[in-house]
User: What shape does this take?
Amino acid sequence: MPTVMSWDEWFAQDALGLAELVRNSEVTPAELAAQAAEAVAKVNPEIDGVLEIFEDAVKDPLVDGTNLDGIFAGIPFLVKDTGCTTMKGRLQEMGSMLLQGNRAAADGFLTSQFRKAGLNLIGRTTAPEFATCSSCENPALHTTKNPWNTEFTSCGSSAGSAVMVGAGALPMASGSDGGGSLRIPAGVNGAISIKTSRGVFSQAPHASDFSSVVSTQGAITRTVRDSAAFVDACRGGAPGEFMPYWFPDEPYLDLIKRDPKPLKIAVSHEWGPHKATPEIVAELERVAKQFAALGHHVEWVVPKVDFELSYDAQTSCYITNFAQTVNNLLLPRGYDRPPQGLIEPINILIWEAGINGSYTDRANMQLAFNTVSRQLGEFYEEWDVILTPVIAKPTPLLDTQEYLTSSNNPSVMDWFRNLWAFFAYTPICNLAGTPGISLPLGRLPNGLPLGMHLTTKQANDGLLLQLAAQVERSLDGDFHGGLRPEVHICK
Assistant: This one.
């Protein structure tokens, strides 16, 4: 298939850059879609991040109602194959044998926001079963690999989107985040992602209650301005939301053009029972000095938060939420429990642990959420930002069973404890409804990227994007110092 630009030219553009080429009549959305499809074909055999390319959307970007006048002007976009971002008439199989052949009856509300923003939805990216795992590895369906070294995991759950952006196939792709599922794969694949505050992205027409907004939607990008523009263009609530959906005083795309004021940044890697490994701490120390050099007050401080209560409450939330989500998929298919062979072992254990959860269990969970959120809020009265790594342990090799839903671990609680010890720092944002952003500022001794995580108080998302843009400018836009992964569109 012919391409409209060289691969170096393709990789040099972010999403807004490609949209500008469209507006200047230098390329057409169809030409960009064709090049994106060719990019996927070039790298996907090695990293296994894309399930399907929609040939009709590649040939005709208007086929599903893309608004070419939107800020993204018809640029190609990949959608994670789970959650509320259903696409009418398209498959959504959620990484599960149970849902093979499942087609969506309608667009989700956020999907319609994608289209209004000018995104041409050209395909589906991989995710672990029901997005409950920290790695996308089911050999019967797909095994998504890290483009920097294909012996290592992509992490998850927004696995396919992260590896495609990391490998340069597209500048931006969708994801979701229930405990770090945008920020962690972005961090280990060399990309950027912001998990926004509560009340930004709708999950309509499905979830609409307090516990549902533990998970939110978003995008994985290569540039801060693409992240800012995505939030600006796709945010907002659907009719009937249970809470107001808020908007900032100024579009983030304008805000990030200015540096933030000097900030008080608390640096930590010791969160309750968990701490980072020495090589990760060394990178955290180096990155902390980068922020100090930008004029910010940086100090090592452990937030006064009951982290163990936080982990326990989130475990309870995920188990009970997941059990009901799966039950709603089982019943229409004639099952009264998860069938062996069609649902992975740990997910069956999670269902068993959560399906009979009581109202008292949920009330206790919500009380713990409130307690931890208040503690974190008090900390942000004194500190503007918290800086941590995005993970506490190095990126695992493929087939590290302790993190997989194919694990034979008989204890679902032990399985969750393993997860918390790995991605210790990101889940508290989901509990508290606060924003967090992952930036590829670190590097492990084996050469893999290491994301650094910045968090702040609720509805202060713009400050994180400002700070991210400031550090991006200080690096001349190159987070990797000229390095590229072993699987890359330009190789």
